[in-house]
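Handout for the seminar on molecular recognition.
Each group receives one record of this type.
Step one: identify the two inputs.
Step two: read the structure output and locate the region that could contact PMV.
Step three: write two sentences on what you found, then compare them with the reference statements printed after the record.
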Amino acid sequence: MMREVFEEGRGHASGKVILLGEHAVVYGTPAIAASLAHGARAVARRSETNRLFLGNKELPQDDPLHPALERIRTVLGAPPVELRLELDLPPGCGLGASAALGVASARALADLSGQSTSQRRISEAADAWEKVFHGTPSGVDRSAAQENGVLRFVRGQEPEKLVLRRSLFLTVAVASPAASTRDMIDNVARLRSANPDQFDKNLEAIRSLVDNATACLRSGDIRSTGRLMDLCQMILSGWMLSTEGIELACAKAREAGALGAKLTGAGGGGCIVALCENDAMSRHVQDALLDLGLEAFATRVPQ
Ligand code: PMV
């Protein structure tokens, strides 16, 4: 169906945290991800040639966002654009910043063209963008960028939106500089080859934590969800994905009252996520993490 062709197209998308199940998701077990209110916005205008701005800064033609934009244009059959991007997430630390930029850009280009574009086309365009940065991503970042709320995600399947009994109050902090996701996935693969039986036991343990957390989130049992996140952190530490900085930040968050805290995403550095009882507690935990000198924010994931 054709609509009026607009001078300007707009799109926005969410960042994400993985609440449970990272790395194991690569081997087919489920993961739970929450979309963040923090994310990306894009405004596209017609132009003779592609121009890209991140905040106030124009990106040079050799910036990797340029080939990523080309891939979106190819999938959507869109003309050259001036694309202005805004990001309100720290980039490159596992909060899904690149997927949020990809989904926001695809939405802005689709909006500009005046065509009604299906969710599937937007997914395809954003996946093409993501492949420039991440090779073969599991798709969890892109799914969370497109949705709101909490998703149960299994690789290769349509994500399932979880109906929550209660909103979630989270505090997120950048515990230390991020490691490469690919290196962390390779390290886990090496552990698996060294001891496949032990690895399979850990995978089954994570599957059961994720299944229990799914039930707890549906029934509003936030306390138990927090405990399950702590247990998941223990298994991820056993896979050598935690760091001193992550352990320190998690301990500080728990001491300040968080119900559970763990690394989120690839590990080896990057962010932690802490689950809190309510808004006041998530702000208190944020203050405690700011006192450690970390970048931190509190956020609510609506029911
Ligand atoms: O830190 P991130 O957002 O790149 O998360 C990686 C999560 C993994 O499970 C390790 C990999 C994946 O593609 O799911």
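Reference statements: The chain has a mean pLDDT of 94. The longest strand covers residues 31-46.
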